Amino acid sequence: MDQSNELSYQQALQNGALFLEQHEKSPLAAERLLLDRLGWTKTDLLMRFADPITEQEYKQYFSDIKEYVSGKPIQYIVGVEWFYGYPLKVTEATLIPRPETEELVQRALQCLEGKGPQKVLDIGTGSGAIAIAMKKERPQDEVTATDLSEEALAVAKENADQLDADIRFLQGDLLEPVQLETFDCILSNPPYISEDEIGLMDSSVLEYEPHSALFADHDGLDLYQKMAFTLPFHLKTDGCLFMEIGFNQGEKLLELYKKAFPDKTVTIEKDLSGLDRMLIVK
């Protein structure tokens, strides 16, 4: 790899894409790495295509490219992931937010549409993705977010401050920090992967993402089972619950949550890939 030597941003991007192709990685990542590191949009890049990239920028860019080739996720390299249109800081203390979780937020927002101020709870907030998206989309709501990890909460608080989202963050296990409270809408994306599924997972996920945010006991059902006993005491009579689930957990969780909420409608809904992904209680 040559040093910049008055290379333009366009040439740097082409070099990056070629390097990735040579190492059997998607060349599309070259643009994402450049844009996120520079804090640019695609429009910014197009307007400066012919401008020379600085030597420092080029060195950083190819350092990022090499890290990506080694298997490190883009989000941890540049420290950012976009969720529901909002840029979030992510570190190896937090799970990288997924598009499937955006679908969960979308369903919750549809349920609350037209309603006045609501009390909303996000259990196991991680980077703060769900709580922040809910608060930004419905500023009138009172949003609370919990997490067991002090490190994750620090990242979530930083994201909320950066995005001017007024959220109450509480440290503790699941619903423990809100023992005496009830909510209109509860959301959660808990760890739900079984240890048996390790062989199906991408090596970069296993190597870099926090295992405590991925894996759970009892075939990945542990936290759903624990919450099934306590959630009914925290959800208001006319409240709604949205939980992300594993693709093969729908049947068992449907049965469990119908018992937990006998007076409500419990459904399992699929994601855009056609897989069971959401447990919804209304």
Automatic annotation (TrEMBL):
Main EC class the enzyme belongs to: transferase
Domain Release factor glutamine methyltransferase N-terminal: 11-79
EC number: 2.1.1.297
Domain Methyltransferase small: 109-196
Binding-site residues, substrate: N189, P190, P191, Y192
GO molecular function: nucleic acid binding; peptide chain release factor N(5)-glutamine methyltransferase activity
One Pfam family hit: MTS
Primary role: Methylates the class 1 translation termination release factors RF1/PrfA and RF2/PrfB on the glutamine residue of the universally conserved GGQ motif.
Family named by the database record: Belongs to the protein N5-glutamine methyltransferase family. PrmC subfamily.
NCBIfam families given in the database record: hemK_fam, RF_mod_PrmC
UniProt cross-references to PANTHER family, sorted A to Z: HEMK METHYLTRANSFERASE (PTHR18895), MTRF1L RELEASE FACTOR GLUTAMINE METHYLTRANSFERASE (PTHR18895:SF74)
Protein name, per record: Release factor glutamine methyltransferase
Gene name for this UniProt entry: prmC
